[in-house]
Amino acid sequence: MPTIKKSFATAVASVAFSGLLPSLHVQAHENGKTSAVLPLKAAYYGNTFNAEVTLGDQSFELLVDTGSADLWVLGDDWECIRKGADAREGCDFGTETYSPSSTYKPVDYAWLGEHYGNGDVIGPLGRETMRLGDITIPNQIFGVINSSTTVGDRVNTGIMGLGHPILAQAHPNSYHATSGAELLVNRIAYNTVFWHMIDRGVEPYYALALDRGSLGQETGKGGYLSFGTLSPVDHGPFITVPNEVTKAIPRSFTDGKRKISFWTVTVQSVSWDDKTGSKPFQAIIDSGNWANVLPPKLASRINAAFEPPGKLDKKSGYFKVDCDATPPADVKFEIGNQKFSINSADMIWRDWDGSCYSTVEGAETSLGVDIAFLGVAFLKNVVSVFDVGNEEIRLAARTEECP
Q: Which residues constitute the catalytic centre (predicted)?
């Protein structure tokens, strides 16, 4: 069954937002704005994408996640406490773990408790010198995880969240919680990774260009994550759309007010087989999600167009398909009055056990609404730019066949 990270958005309940950790504002570099281009490693048959991150004197492969905000890595003493798992192998992470270095400084007033759609991670917070390519970030706050019920991709040992700080799931020491929705309440914000990078002189945008990878290859070249510059791939003209307030997120999650939280766009239509099959809907762009998660009726119609049709697996909630099934033709997502085509190779993915699934998933209903996502299956077909400075998203179709 699918076991990679899913956004916690569908699990958001009535929550409160309180307080701020001290942010670390510093001057820009004397030589002006800085930038970096990081090669990515694809894992889990091209369903996850990891970047090399150095903390102190140790390097880790961390999942690049636009759908969350916290940075964390597994500590030396971490435990996998998933049901049915009797060892660390049950959580499917890589092997590298963090040992506090001489530059590590504990954060003694808060801890990290992160709730995702498929589990939780918990551990203390600390500060450490972080390096991403040529960019150095001193005193970056991050979590050192000592227990996990979520899972990895057999390569990564943590997550680098690039979402807005309002999504951060740090908690004051006075708050005691152990799992699930309890971790979505009593949160305190802090200077998360990319916002701290902006303080250090990085241009306030980052870009993703995800490569497709070879069918059947568990790991491989993954494309690029670029900070303050564009990814070095060929692409068409960009369209620009505003980063929208996610209407499905309750106000209680954003301090009682309608605020920007996730990277969210309006999908004006979805079409396939030369017909349009949807009304406009909002979708969160989430590089930590393998699927395109669409309104349930729309997802069912698209999966019925596979030959042979995809069948809903009630246990997993995903549509199972034959590995050699023919996906519906010419699937397109219209955003900003431009239609972005989805390569047929991105319509089917395989699990470790050899089973195959459609990359079109039906949204789960939360609080009476359906929250949609554009995940890896969409992002492989575009260059995406996440602009913090202007609170906008830019998308361009890849004009080369991504590897």
A: 65, 286
